[in-house]
Design brief:
Blueprint (H helix, E strand, L loop, with lengths): L3 H4 L2 H20 L4 E4 L3 E7 L9 E6 L2 E6 L8 E4 L10 E5 L2 E7 L26 H6 L2 H18 L5 H16 L12
Antiparallel strand pairs: 1-2, 2-7, 3-4, 4-5, 6-7
Protein name: CS domain-containing protein
Main location: cytoplasm
Pfam families: CS (PF04969)
């Protein structure tokens, strides 16, 4: 029996992807800030009320928490919540430029895409992220191999297919079966 995804035509799958991208874009556009990320960091741009200066702000960075508020109205922050993942507090910064607060958050885990900035905001589909080729080319061989493996595994999972680690386990098991034909694996439950 075919699963629901297998019954979809390429055109239907493309239409569903287009609808999902449009919904995600609308959710992200509705946020009070814009954000972008690399594997190393997250940059957030938050518009500020006219005339706000650095001394007018309360900016709090904790390992997995952020709060941005006006001192005059600290009870209603401009941005607050649990971060998607841990940051390096000492390497995270902020500055005001042209009426916007520019926030730079340095990731602790440099091998993972964030789904959102703060966990209570709408998530993005990280399996659809395509890093800029020039950035991928700038990585050293070992890091690049790890990122490419990660991207491959994310695509495999999204399609319900085995990851590279699962494929390796299956190859080892098949070799073992070939080396031990006397063993009966018909009732074996292998996770």
């Amino acid at each position: 029996m075919m699963s629901g995804d297998e019954e979809l035509t390429a055109a239907q799958r493309e239409e569903l992807d287009r609808e999902a991208r449009a919904k995600e874009k609308a959710e992200q556009d509705a946020l009070p800030y814009r954000w972008r990320q690399t594997l190393q960091d997250v940059d957030v741009t938050l518009p500020l009320p006219k005339g706000v200066r650095g001394k007018d702000l309360v900016v709090v960075f904790k390992q997995k928490y952020i709060k941005i508020a006006l001192k005059s109205n600290a009870a209603e922050p401009l941005l607050e919540g649990e971060l998607c993942n841990n940051i390096k507090i000492e390497d995270s910064t902020w500055l005001i430029d042209g009426g916007e607060l520019l926030i730079h958050l340095e990731k602790v885990n440099k091998a993972e895409w964030w789904k959102n900035v703060v966990t209570h905001h709408p998530a993005i589909d990280t399996t659809k992220i395509v890093p800029e080729n020039s950035k991928l080319d700038d990585l050293d061989g070992e890091t690049r191999a790890m990122v490419e493996k990660m991207m491959y595994d994310q695509r495999q999972k999204a399609m319900g297919l085995p990851t590279s680690d699962d494929q390796q386990k299956m190859r080892v098991l098949e070799r073992f079966k070939e080396q031990h034909p006397e063993m009966d694996f018909s009732n074996a439950k292998i996770a």
